[in-house]
TrEMBL record:
This is Cysteine-rich receptor-like protein kinase 38. Gene3D superfamilies: Gnk2 domain, C-X8-C-X2-C motif, Phosphorylase Kinase, domain 1. PANTHER family: CYSTEINE-RICH REPEAT SECRETORY PROTEIN (PTHR32099), GNK2-HOMOLOGOUS DOMAIN-CONTAINING PROTEIN (PTHR32099:SF70). Residues 1-23 form the signal peptide. ATP binds at residue 368. The lineage of its organism: Eukaryota, Viridiplantae, Streptophyta, Embryophyta, Tracheophyta. Pfam families: PK_Tyr_Ser-Thr, Stress-antifung. The chain crosses the membrane at residues 279-297. It comes from the Eukaryota. It comes from Raphanus sativus (Radish). GO terms for molecular function: ATP binding; protein kinase activity.
Length: 398
């Protein structure tokens, strides 16, 4: 527990707070009277919605008098996570859309690795494409266009969009949740780009495609340059990010990047060594007995399963656990941080100071420098590094 507190302390020093807009839900203007039968009918539908979604293998729609409700979970959902997500969406609608006839909430929980939809209307939406209105949740971070080739990125992104769209709208009826596509692609500009698309199964594949294309267009037109985002419409969801979200990419084979003409050395190290993790953590046991931690500043992350978070390892575990860690020469770290120059100091953490640095590749890094104290300090520092590799949350910028 102490370790976790320390980490949050160092994270809060290291990383700015992000104001991610949580806007997965939307209420549409028409109101009903608080005490009306509409509200009672809606509550009555809500009371069995979560269990009915499970019974109906991921998608369920029901009506009671003039109230219509739809619920959906992500393909491959875990039972309890789906129930929790639907119940959370219902709470959001009850609280935020307490007297609105129409509402929808594409909710999600990164920690629970789930996403789901709950929608209510005063007319049947079954088989009807619902394009508007849209909600969004966009990454507050910009892609650093001074180090990334945005032309190339755009091209790779569009290819990934096409690939995901194709996967999501392929005409099969193997699953209740038939419109679903996830792609993990390696870009020249980023080691991992994750994309997911899903539609409700009651519409046609052509309608699903149209819905998703409108989401993509919305992102492209309004938020191009951001490091990820979600666009939701009543019938579909589009999300892409630089980290794996909702646990949706566990069994997905990464699409390799096309061969590239020139690979900056440092970037090549990070691409090959990260093994699918979009985080680089570096431990350098130097002659000076400094341990140095590098966290790449460019991504925000997902909170892993809580049992992973709290595990604190023994020395052997740490080593076997750290196969995706990178080792950097102290000289490289010194170069990046200008010999730990005071100008580059951005904070004071649990076991040492934190410095900003720039690798030869142009990648911005944060370096934490531990001055050698006791053996205990080293172990704690190592555990912190390991925890950081596992602790991923969208609101933590590292
Ligand atoms: C709401 O309905 C309940 C039961 O039908 C009734 O007791 C209560 O007075 C009503 N409240 C209002 C504000 O109309
Ligand atoms: C959804 O509603 C339609 C039309 O009302 C109905 O035919 C269908 O069986 C319902 N599906 C589920 C899973 O309840
Ligand atoms: C739904 O509610 C709106 C606004 O109150 C109303 O205009 C519309 O006729 C209703 N639709 C149905 C099918 O009852
Ligand atoms: C960016 O990528 C495009 C497409 O691959 C290429 O034509 C262009 O030369 C690149 N620009 C820079 C500055 O590397
Ligand atoms: C993606 O698909 C659209 C429509 O099929 C096509 O016009 C476009 O060239 C494709 N883009 C890429 C990068 O493959
Ligand atoms: C998709 O599948 C359905 C039923 O399986 C079929 O009726 C429809 O024609 C198919 N559409 C396309 C475009 O293949
Ligand atoms: C990945 O595969 C394992 C084993 O086949 C399965 O238990 C798990 O549910 C899969 N995960 C996803 C997200 O599909």
């Amino acid at each position: 527990m102490k370790d976790i507190a320390t980490i949050f302390l160092s994270i809060s020093l290291l990383f700015q707070t992000l104001n991610g807009v949580k806007a997965g839900f939307l209420c549409v203007d028409d109101t009903f009277l608080a005490n009306s039968s509409y509200g009672q009918n809606r509550d009555s539908l809500f009371s069995s919605l979560a269990s009915q979604v499970i019974t109906n293998r991921g998608f369920y729609n029901a009506s009671l008098n003039s109230v219509h409700a739809v619920a959906l979970c992500r393909r491959g959902y875990e039972r309890q996570a789906c129930i929790n997500c639907v119940e959370k969406a219902i709470r959001v609608i009850k609280t935020s859309c307490s007297d609105r006839m129409k509402s929808f909430d594409w909710d999600n929980d990164d920690a629970d690795q789930v996403s789901c939809l709950v929608r209510t209307t005063n007319y049947s939406t079954f088989g009807k494409l619902g394009l508007g209105p849209a909600t969004r949740d966009i990454s507050p971070l910009d892609i650093d266009s001074s180090t990334k080739n945005m032309t190339l990125f755009r091209q790779e992104w569009e290819e990934t969009v096409n690939r995901t769209l194709e996967a999501a709208t392929v005409n099969t009826s193997v699953s209740v949740l038939k419109y679903y596509g996830v792609v993990n692609a390696e870009f020249v500009e980023f080691p991992n780009v994750y994309m997911m698309m899903q539609c409700t199964p009651d519409i046609t594949s052509g309608e699903c495609k149209r819905c998703l294309e409108e989401c993509v267009t919305y992102f492209r037109d309004m938020f191009w340059g951001k490091q990820g985002g979600t666009i939701c419409r009543p019938s579909c969801l589009f999300r892409w990010d630089l980290y794996a979200f909702y646990g949706a990419f566990a069994n997905i084979t990464r699409v390799p990047a096309p061969p590239r003409p020139f690979i900056p050395e440092a970037q090549a190290i990070s691409v090959t060594s990260l093994k699918g993790k979009n985080i680089a953590i570096v431990v350098v046991p130097s002659v000076l007995h400094l341990f140095v931690l590098l966290g790449l500043i460019r991504a925000y992350r997902q909170l892993k399963k809580s049992k992973d978070e709290t595990s604190v390892c023994a020395e052997e575990d740490c080593i076997s656990d750290s196969q995706f860690m990178l080792r950097f020469d102290l000289s490289m770290v010194l170069l990046a941080t200008g010999d730990f120059s005071p100008e580059n100091k951005i904070g004071q953490g649990g076991f040492g100071s934190v410095y900003k640095g720039i690798l030869p590749s142009g990648q911005e890094i944060a370096v934490k420098r531990l001055t050698r104290g006791s053996e205990q300090g080293e172990v704690e520092f190592r555990n912190e590094v390991l925890l950081l590799t596992r602790l991923q949350h969208r609101n933590l910028l590292m």
